Amino acid sequence: MPAKKILVLNGHPAESSLSRTFAQTYADAAIAKGHEVRMVHLSDLQFDHDFGQGNYEDFKPLEPVLEQVLQDIEWSDHLVLTTPMWWGGLPAKLKGLIDRTFIPGRTFDTRNTTKIGLPAPMLSGRTARVILTSDTPGWFMRLIYRQALLRQLRDQVLGFVGFKPTRFTYFASASYPNPGSVERWIGKVARMGAAAL
């Protein structure tokens, strides 16, 4: 398998978290198999995560840390995002990172459209893996919530700018895991990292 350029983004805003453990585990396993990996920890980034009153023609200039994140995304073949689900969505700082960096002219093109009239994606040819932790049981996520956050990330965020396919790994209950669960989860993430999936 040819080496991939992989960006691992730990989307948990705390310095220590299960998401960080998964991010490091994935990165270490991928590096051991000869893949080129860049790592970003959301907790290390200082930026204004409010998109504010900007628009597509007049949005806030990117802080240097956000410009670097965007360059890392553009560099990558494969994006790995580790994040918790909070209140059915993403942590506010991670949502702010997306709001600020997924901008026209860099990630999608409003001057050109797809066959169905959407802005043309500018990050096509890349794949993604989202490793999501939650306290919501998997069956409840599927049957009651209809995988809402997964569909949002797949179709309205990552797919919108060109990441296809986006695959998901879902771990619950993350706050109070059963004995041995975290070790099994880490093993699964390590295998995904080794295979660059």
UniProtKB/TrEMBL annotation:
Gene Ontology CC entries for this record: cytosol
Name of this chain's protein: Putative NADPH-quinone reductase
GO molecular function, a single term: NAD(P)H dehydrogenase (quinone) activity
Keywords tagged on the record: Oxidoreductase
Domain Flavodoxin-like fold: 4-178
Classification of source organism: Bacteria, Pseudomonadati, Pseudomonadota, Alphaproteobacteria, Rhodobacterales
Family according to the record: Belongs to the NAD(P)H dehydrogenase (quinone) family.
InterPro entries: Flavodoxin_fold, Flavoprotein-like_sf, NAD(P)H_dehydrogenase_qn
